[in-house]
């Protein structure tokens, strides 16, 4: 998978390298993300921009930490032929102020929290979800935790 990364309204940092490492780890944990034809965009932006996107596309009038906009269904992703043109998996947008506040509340670095949210967003793009059932949420959290461990990041759901 290749990433198209855009950074606006985030502090100095190597966010591109962080996103690339998070995507590589996610592809190791979720093989559907390892497809070489896939492309995804990652936008590091402000709460105001994520708020506007959330209002426009999800009809939720508030900012959130990460938004994911999948462009393929999980079945389409699973059936993607090895050869052919690039396929857009989807878009992810991270809101700086919310991410920074949550990181401080959790006592983790902004980098670790951003990596977690990128992994979380990519798993959503791969068709994973956590809203329909407790089992679904537990499975997604376990997958996130295993992927983050590959990055040396502690379980974000642990006490």
List the helices and strands and how they pair.
Elements: E1 2-7, H1 15-29, E2 38-45, H2 47-58, E3 66-70, H3 74-78, E4 87-95, H4 96-106, H5 110-125, H6 134-150
Parallel strand pairs: 1-2, 2-4
Antiparallel strand pairs: 3-4
Total strands: 4
Count of alpha and pi helical runs: 6
Shape: globular
Q: Rg to the nearest angstrom? A: 15 Å
Can you identify the CATH superfamily? Metalloproteases ("zincins"), catalytic domain
The tally of domains stands at 1
CATH class category name: Alpha Beta
Largest beta sheet: strand ordering: 1-2-4-3
Structural class: alpha/beta
CATH architecture: 3-Layer(aba) Sandwich
Q: Could you tell me the mean pLDDT?
A: 94
As residue ranges, the low-confidence spans are none
- CATH fold call: Collagenase (Catalytic Domain)
Biggest beta sheet summary? 4 strands, mixed
Helix content: 40-55%
From N to C, what is the helix and strand string?
Answer: EHEHEHEHHH
Subcellular location: Cytoplasm
GO cellular component, one term: cytoplasm
Cofactor: Zn(2+)
GO molecular function: metalloendopeptidase activity; RNA endonuclease activity; zinc ion binding
